[in-house]
Automatic annotation (TrEMBL):
GO terms for biological process: regulation of developmental process; regulation of multicellular organismal process. The active site is at residue 171. It is found in: Nucleus. Belongs to the sirtuin family. Class I subfamily. GO terms for cellular component: nucleus. One of its GO terms (molecular function) is histone deacetylase activity, NAD-dependent. Residues 331-362 are annotated as: Disordered. Transmembrane segments: none annotated. Binds 1 zinc ion per subunit. It catalyses: N(6)-acetyl-L-lysyl-[protein] + NAD(+) + H2O = 2''-O-acetyl-ADP-D-ribose + nicotinamide + L-lysyl-[protein]; N(6)-tetradecanoyl-L-lysyl-[protein] + NAD(+) + H2O = 2''-O-tetradecanoyl-ADP-D-ribose + nicotinamide + L-lysyl-[protein]; N(6)-hexadecanoyl-L-lysyl-[protein] + NAD(+) + H2O = 2''-O-hexadecanoyl-ADP-D-ribose + nicotinamide + L-lysyl-[protein]. The lineage of its organism: Eukaryota, Metazoa, Chordata, Craniata, Vertebrata. This is NAD-dependent protein deacetylase.
């Protein structure tokens, strides 16, 4: 569940962020209108090959990845908005007043059952990370990943080997849960929540009996503070932004593309072009939106296709393809082995519990 498309109220920092964005726009406006300065072209060519050459040049040392639901669809997790197959298109069975209600905090507090029924279907641990997830892990292993900003809540980035310091989980995560009572806020781990969900129990706090909710960001909740604090230091220092599997329609996540410097190359790997600037502004070279096609395009590259195919193609150009394929094969085998051991342990535990129950007299 890849929850990836939640629109949220912003923290107090949001007004500062909007002001900063307006200042960037005005700088670009005056720079272009008055001819003050010109953008340096970092890429040799606006192609995947040009991006690969830049990464291999040694000049690219702070890569930021921005990812959404599209990087998890090949794992079997539906995205939100694809017609027919997206999550919102298949929620009729939950008898919701409207699809987004299942992630609305007020609705959840009154009717938690639909969310936890859905959570059982899409719970972390039932899916394996994709080629794309492991490509991001390789960027970390190569020492060039500054951070991965994810809209997803499926924890597959963690399962692929990214750790807390590598990740900004912009829309929260299933990894931890908390009591919803502001007077309590007791924390629970993934295993505790998993036991409740798969026992068809509505999770309630051991301390105060209030609902316990995974730490995913629902409509009506603020994004994590870490999102706002990290982006202020990460994006000005980014020298390559890789955007994968996101429509760039949900704010404030989508606005991150405009936070890198004017010369920072941006690569989009997606099923369709996204995040493009207003056509008029694009013609003038203004604003922070993506510009793939105008005569003034100088840094934005689009690979149209699946995220896995895009990562394999880039890995091939980098000379990493065999290494990436071997990593995926090895890690998937490890996960399958761990899952078999867990199932065997669960079966033994259930058998032991059944054997210890006193038999009823005939």
């Amino acid at each position: 569940m890849p929850g990836q498309c939640f629109l949220n109220e912003l923290s107090d920092d949001s007004s500062e962020d909007e002001a900063a964005g307006e200042m960037d726009f005005l700088r670009n406006l005056f720079s272009s209108t008055l001819g003050l300065g010109s953008a340096d072209k970092v890429l040799d060519e606006l192609t995947l090959s040009g991006v690969a050459h830049y990464i291999n040049s040694g000049k690219c040392k702070n890569i930021i990845c921005m990812v959404g639901a599209g990087i998890s669809t090949s794992a079997g997790i539906p995205d939100f908005r694809s017609p027919g197959t997206g999550l919102y298109a298949n929620l009729q069975k939950y008898n919701l007043p409207y699809p987004e209600a299942i992630f609305q905090i007020d609705y959840f507090q009154e009717h938690p059952e639909p969310f936890f029924t859905l959570a059982k279907e899409l719970y972390p641990g039932q899916f394996k990370p994709t080629i794309c997830h492991y490509f991001i892990k390789m960027l970390k292993d190569k020492g060039v990943l500054r951070r991965c900003y994810t809209q997803n809540i499926d924890t597959l980035e963690r399962l692929a080997g990214l750790e807390g310091g590598d990740l900004i989980e912009a829309h929260g995560t299933f990894y931890t849960s908390h009591c919803v009572s502001s007077c309590c806020r007791k924390e629970y781990n993934l295993d505790w929540m998993k036991e409740k969900v798969f026992s068809d129990d509505i999770p309630r706090c051991d301390k105060c009996s209030s609902l316990v909710k995974p730490d995913i960001v629902f409509f009506g909740e603020n994004l994590p503070v870490q999102f706002f604090t990290s982006m202020k230091s990460d994006f000005p220092n980014c020298d390559l932004l890789i955007i994968m599997g996101t429509s760039l329609k949900v704010q404030p996540f989508a606005s991150l593309v405009s936070r890198v410097s004017k010369i920072c190359p941006r690569l989009l790997i997606n099923m369709e072009k996204a995040g493009q600037a207003d056509p008029l502004f694009g013609m003038l070279g203004l604003g922070g939106g993506m510009d793939f096609d105008s005569e003034k395009a100088y840094r934005d590259v689009a690979y149209i296709g699946t995220c896995d195919d895009g990562c394999l193609a880039l890995a091939d150009l980098l000379g990493w393809k065999t290494e990436l394929e071997e990593l995926v094969k090895k890690e998937h085998a490890r996960i399958e082995s761990d899952n078999k051991k867990e199932k065997a342990s669960d079966s033994k535990g259930a058998a032991a519990a059944a054997a210890s129950e006193p038999r009823k007299e005939e």
